[in-house]
Specification:
Layout: E1 3-9, H1 14-32, E2 50-57, E3 63-71, H2 79-84, H3 91-94, E4 99-107, H4 118-131, E5 136-138, H5 146-151
Parallel strand pairs: 4-5
Antiparallel strand pairs: 1-2, 2-3, 3-4
């Protein structure tokens, strides 16, 4: 199977954004039993400062995984603000213009073991955020994915929640959101 990796501004390719959302939703529902996630809305698709990276078939008919980088600009809240803002409103003071969030990270089981898994896409998200000249990049991790966050240079923000920890029921948020 040949796969292409492509990055684009979300507003430039609605069709691929919808495939990204659908693949992410199906993975979460099937493998994790998560029915509702904060990033399942489509407003980010129409946001000037959201960028998407996808692993897709060469003919662009199938998306196998990807990641989003949303740059804070005061127009659309970062997903982390929506996810934890009710638990700790201090996130709103930190998610200011000049910051970003690496989020919506996923890959399908079809490409498992091919070297384009979560760690690869997370790294691509960090590189993209760096190219966008942001000062800070948030990524919200589940306990099992904190290791990936640390491997790509992340540190736990202990000023939020309970020293960086939050209990968020899985019906509200898929925790491994970057």
């Amino acid at each position: 199977m040949e796969i292409a990796i492509r990055a684009f501004k979300a507003i430039m390719d609605e069709e691929t954004c919808l495939k990204f959302i659908d693949g992410h939703r199906r993975l979460l529902e099937f493998h994790f039993g998560v029915a509702k996630i904060t990033s399942s809305h489509t407003s980010w698709m129409h946001h000037e400062n959201t960028f998407v990276v996808v692993a897709e078939s060469l003919d662009r008919t199938k998306v196998y995984g990807g990641v989003r980088v949303q740059v804070a600009d005061g127009q659309l809240p970062l997903p982390i603000e929506t996810a934890i803002g009710r638990y700790d409103p201090a996130i709103h003071q930190q998610a200011t213009p000049g910051s970003s969030e690496i989020c919506g990270l996923w890959n399908s089981m079809e490409v498992a073991g091919m070297g384009i898994g979560s760690i690869f896409m997370a790294r691509v998200g960090v590189v993209l955020a760096m190219q966008l000249n942001v000062e800070k990049a948030f990524f919200l991790c589940a306990p099992v994915t904190v290791r990936i966050g640390k491997r790509i240079g992340g540190v736990i923000e202990t000023s939020l929640g309970n020293k960086g920890d939050f209990f968020i029921p899985k019906t509200i948020l898929w925790p491994p959101q970057w």
